[in-house]
Write a structure and sequence with these properties.
Elements (H helix, E strand, L loop, with lengths): L3 H4 L3 H18 L5 H9 L3 E3 L6 E5 L5 E2 L1 H14 L3 E4 L5 E6 L4 H9 L17 E2 L14 H11 L14 E3 L14 E10 L2 E10 L11 E8 L3 H15 L10 H8 L1 H12 L35 H14 E3 L5 E6 L5 E3 H14 L4 E3 L5 E7 L3 H10 L14 E2 L13 H15 L11 E4 L13 E10 L2 E10 L2 E4 L2 E3 L2 E7 L3 H15 L6 H8 L1 H8 L38 H21 L3 H20 L9 H13 L10 H5 L9 H27 L1
Parallel strand pairs: 6-7, 7-8, 16-17, 17-18
Antiparallel strand pairs: 1-2, 2-5, 3-14, 4-5, 4-13, 8-9, 9-10, 11-12, 12-15, 14-15, 18-19, 19-22, 20-21
Helix pairs in contact: 2-3, 2-5, 4-5, 4-11, 7-9, 8-9, 11-12, 13-14, 17-18, 17-21, 18-19, 18-21
Length: about 700
C-alpha cells in the first residue's frame, strides 16, 4: 500500500483506500469485529460472494456513464484482479467477481486513477444514483436531467447523513414522463417538469418517495407534483435524516424506507421531513445545468470519409433489421443512439476494449450502462451506423432485440450470490435460446418484458415484469428441487407509476422455458387484436393462468434431471448462505414459510370469492407448512400431518420454546370440529396469521443467534 500519496491526487480518496487496507489487516489479526468490518468494506464496494474466500467488487457508475478511458481501466483491472468478466447490473453498476480480499485496496487505487469509485456501491448507504440512459438526447425530455442526477451523487457521496443508515437508499432520475428510469420502484424518484411562473419557464421535478421491490413490493407515493430544481437536494437530505433517525435498524427485512412510511404513513413522514428541513444549512442548492450534462461528447477526428461497406443481400437484411430495432434517433440532428443487447449482462474484457475503440473511432466518446444490463452508445453519426454494426458483429454483440421481448434481464443468482436460490442466469440463457428459435418474429415487441431473479430480493426486477420468474425451491418427498415462482402482469405505467406482477404458481426450474412457451402461445392465440399482455392477463384473471401453468408444477411426473439446476451437474441442495444484501438465510425452512404465506394469500382469494371450504383448508395447510418449517431443525418426524401437529406441540409448545394462546393441535384442528362459515374462517385466518408470524419471529431470532 506504499506510494498511494504519489499515485493519487485526491487525499480524500487516498485516505479511504488506506483505511480499507488498515481494517483488512486488523480483521486478519482478530482485532476488528466481523460485523464492523463487514459494514466498512460494504460501504467501499467489497461484497462477499457465494464462493468462499473471494469477493465481488461493485464499481459505482453515476447514471451508468462511461467513456473509452474508463472502460479500458475497468477491463484492465478485471483482467489483473478478477476473472476477466464485467457484469453489468440493473443499478447501472459494473461488478467483477472472484477478487482476493487483500488485493481490494490496490484494485480500488487502480480504478481511481481514472476517477472511478467503489465508495458506497454497497452497504447501508445511498447506492448508485441511476438515470435514464437517454438523458440529454431524448427528444421528449423537458430538459437534460444528467447534471441534476450527478449533482445529487456528488452531494451525498461520503455525506455523514447516509453512511450508516438502517438500510440502503435507491434514487433514480427519469428523462421524461415515459419514465424509463422506473422511479415508482425507488426510495426517491425524480421526473423532470416545466411550468410557467410570472411569464418565465421554471424547471422542477415531480418527486415520488417510498417505492421498493423485494417480497413486499410497494409503489412510491407522490410527494410533490412540482418541486423547484434548487429544492431537490435539500428535500432529499431532510428525507434521509428522517429515515436515519426513525428507520428500523435491527430487523433488516423491515428496515427499508417503504416500511417506515407504511408504519407511520406518508403524511406523517412528509410532516417530519418539513420539520427537518428547517434545520438544514443548505436551504437551497442551485445546480449548474451546464456541467456534466448528458450531451457531453467528443467526436473522433476523421481525416477522410469512411469506405462504403458492401453487403450480400442477406447481410443487408440483417443490418436493416438491427437498425430498426437497436437504433434510436437522438434529438440532435444527424446522430443516433445504438443499443447493445448483452446476454445476462456479462461482457468480456476483450469485448469491452473493442467497444472503447469503437467509441473513439466511429462515435462520440459517451455511452451508458442501462438498467436492463445493456449498453447504449450515444452520438453515433448516422453515416457511421454501418461501421458500428460491423464492428459489433465482429465481437458477437450485434444481436437485434435491444430491450424487447428477446432481451431477458437476470441477476447473477446461484452463480455467485449468497442469496441465490435458483440459477437465474442459467434460466435466462435457456429462455433466450427458446425465444431466438421459436419467437424471433417478435424481435420488435417492446410491450412484453421478461425478468428473472434468483431469490425474492428482486435484483433482476422480476416483480415489475410482464412475465417474471423468482428463484425458489420446492419440496418433493424427502428432497427439494430448484423452482421458479411465476409472476404475471407487472410493468411501468409512466410518470412515476407502475404495477407489480402477481404471483401465479411455482414451476420446476427445468420446465420454466416450456412454461414461458405456453404463456406466449396462449397470449398470441387468444388475445384480442392489439391487446397488451397485462390487459389480457387482467381480462382472463389469475385462475385462468394457474390452469395454463399447472402442468409445469406437477410433482407426480418429476424426473431426476429436475433435481439438477441450470449451470450445474450436481443434485440441488441447500447451499445458501447469509446474504449481506438482505441478511436472511433462505433454505428449506424459508421455503416452507413462504409456502405458508402463499396459502394464506390463496385463502384470502377464496374467501373473496365466497369459497368458504377452500379458504378454511388453505388456512389449515398454511399452519401445517409453517409448523413443518421449524420441525425440520429437530429430530421430529414430519412424514404425516398428524406427526407434524403432535411433534410441534411436543418440541416447541410443551417445552415452552414458543408461547401460544393454546396448544397447536387445539388450534389447527378446529377445522375438524365445525362446519366452516364466513365468521369462523375469518377468525381462523386471524389466528393462523398470528401463529405464522410468531414462528417467523422465532426463526429470525434463531438465525440471528
Amino acid at each position: 500500500m506504499q506510494g498511494f500519496r504519489t499515485e493519487l491526487e485526491n487525499p480524500i480518496v487516498e485516505k479511504d483506500i488506506l483505511e480499507l487496507e488498515k481494517k483488512i489487516r486488523l480483521f486478519h489479526e482478530g482485532k476488528l469485529d466481523e460485523q464492523k468490518f463487514r459494514s466498512l468494506r460494504l460501504a467501499r464496494g467489497v461484497y462477499g460472494q457465494r464462493q468462499s474466500g473471494v469477493q465481488m467488487i461493485r464499481i459505482k457508475l453515476p447514471q451508468g456513464k462511461l467513456n473509452a478511458r474508463k472502460l479500458r481501466r475497468i477491463a484492465d483491472v478485471a483482467d489483473e484482479y478478477s476473472s476477466g468478466i464485467l457484469h453489468l447490473t440493473t443499478r447501472q453498476d459494473i461488478q467483477i467477481h472472484f477478487v482476493n480480499l487483500d488485493r481490494t485496496p490496490q484494485l480500488w487505487a487502480e480504478l481511481e486513477r481514472d476517477e472511478i469509485t467503489l465508495r458506497e456501491a454497497c452497504g447501508n448507504t445511498v447506492r448508485n444514483i441511476t438515470a435514464s440512459p437517454f438523458a440529454g438526447i431524448d427528444s421528449n425530455e423537458p430538459f437534460d436531467t444528467a447534471p441534476y442526477s450527478y449533482a445529487m451523487f456528488e452531494y451525498f457521496l461520503r455525506n455523514p447523513v447516509c453512511q450508516e443508515m438502517g438500510r440502503k437508499i435507491k434514487i433514480a432520475f427519469a428523462s421524461s414522463d415515459k419514465d424509463d428510469a422506473l422511479t415508482f420502484m425507488h426510495d426517491f424518484g425524480f421526473i423532470p417538469k416545466l411550468k410557467i411562473h410570472e411569464g418565465k419557464e421554471v424547471r422542477g421535478f415531480k418527486v415520488v418517495v417510498g417505492g421498493g421491490l423485494g417480497n413486499q413490493a410497494q409503489a412510491a407515493f407522490t410527494a410533490y407534483e412540482f418541486l423547484p430544481e434548487d429544492q431537490i437536494i435539500p428535500f432529499t437530505e431532510a428525507a434521509l435524516r428522517v429515515f436515519d433517525r426513525y428507520g428500523e435498524r435491527e430487523k433488516r427485512m423491515a428496515a427499508r424506507l417503504k416500511f417506515l412510511i407504511k408504519q407511520i404513513g406518508a403524511e406523517d413522514y412528509m410532516r417530519l421531513v418539513e420539520i427537518e428541513k428547517k434545520s438544514l444549512i443548505n436551504q437551497s442548492v442551485k445546480i449548474d445545468a451546464t456541467i456534466n450534462t448528458g450531451s457531453e461528447y467528443t467526436l473522433p477526428k476523421v481525416e477522410q470519409p469512411l469506405e462504403k461497406i458492401s453487403y450480400t443481400a442477406n447481410e443487408a437484411k440483417e443490418f436493416e433489421r438491427w437498425k430498426k430495432v437497436n437504433v434510436f434517433a437522438q434529438k440532435q440532428d444527424g446522430f443516433s443512439a445504438v443499443g447493445i443487447k448483452i446476454l445476462t449482462g456479462n461482457l468480456t474484457t476483450a469485448q469491452a476494449r473493442s467497444i472503447a475503440e469503437l467509441a473513439e473511432k466511429y462515435m462520440g466518446d459517451d455511452f451508458r450502462v442501462t438498467i436492463s444490463q445493456n449498453l447504449l452508445l450515444r452520438f453515433v453519426p448516422n453515416e457511421n451506423l454501418e461501421h458500428v454494426y460491423v464492428s459489433l458483429k465482429n465481437i458477437d454483440l450485434a444481436d437485434a432485440g435491444y430491450e424487447t421481448l428477446l432481451d431477458v434481464t437476470s441477476c447473477p443468482g446461484t452463480d455467485t450470490c449468497n442469496l441465490g436460490v435458483a440459477s437465474s442466469m442459467g434460466l435466462a440463457k435457456a429462455i433466450e435460446s427458446l425465444l431466438k428459435t421459436d419467437f424471433e418474429h417478435l424481435v420488435n415487441d417492446r410491450n412484453l418484458s421478461i425478468k428473472i431473479s434468483g431469490c425474492m430480493n428482486s435484483c433482476g426486477q422480476h416483480v415489475i415484469a410482464n412475465i417474471g420468474f423468482q428463484g425458489m425451491s420446492t419440496p418433493v418427498g424427502k428432497h427439494i428441487a430448484p423452482a421458479f415462482q411465476v409472476l404475471l402482469g407487472g410493468g411501468n405505467l409512466s410518470n412515476g407509476t407502475g404495477r407489480f406482477a402477481e404471483k401465479s404458481i411455482k414451476v420446476f426450474s427445468k420446465r420454466a422455458p416450456e412454461a414461458l412457451r405456453a404463456l406466449l402461445h396462449d397470449y398470441h392465440t387468444h388475445s384480442n387484436a392489439g391487446e397488451l399482455f397485462n390487459d389480457y392477463y387482467d381480462r382472463q384473471g389469475a385462475k385462468y393462468f394457474h390452469t395454463v401453468l399447472a402442468p409445469f408444477g406437477e410433482k407426480a411426473n418429476v424426473t431426476a434431471d429436475e433435481f439438477v439446476d441450470w449451470n450445474s451437474t450436481e443434485a440441488y441442495g441447500k447451499a445458501v448462505g447469509v446474504g449481506e444484501c438482505a441478511g436472511v438465510v433462505i433454505d428449506l425452512v424459508q421455503t416452507l414459510l413462504l409456502d405458508a404465506d402463499e396459502k394464506l394469500q390463496d385463502a384470502t382469494l377464496a374467501l373473496a370469492e365466497n369459497r368458504i371450504a377452500d379458504a378454511s383448508y388453505h388456512i389449515y395447510s398454511a399452519q401445517i407448512n409453517a409448523a413443518k418449517a421449524l420441525l425440520t431443525s429437530t429430530d421430529a418426524r414430519t412424514n404425516t400431518q398428524k406427526a407434524i401437529i403432535d411433534g410441534f406441540d411436543r418440541e416447541f409448545v410443551d417445552t415452552g420454546k414458543i408461547s401460544l394462546p393454546k396448544k397447536f393441535s387445539d388450534s389447527v384442528l378446529q377445522i375438524t370440529e365445525v362446519v366452516p362459515d364466513k365468521a369462523f374462517v375469518q377468525q381462523f385466518f386471524e389466528e393462523a396469521t398470528e401463529f405464522i408470524q410468531t414462528l417467523k419471529n422465532y426463526r429470525e431470532a434463531e438465525v440471528a443467534v
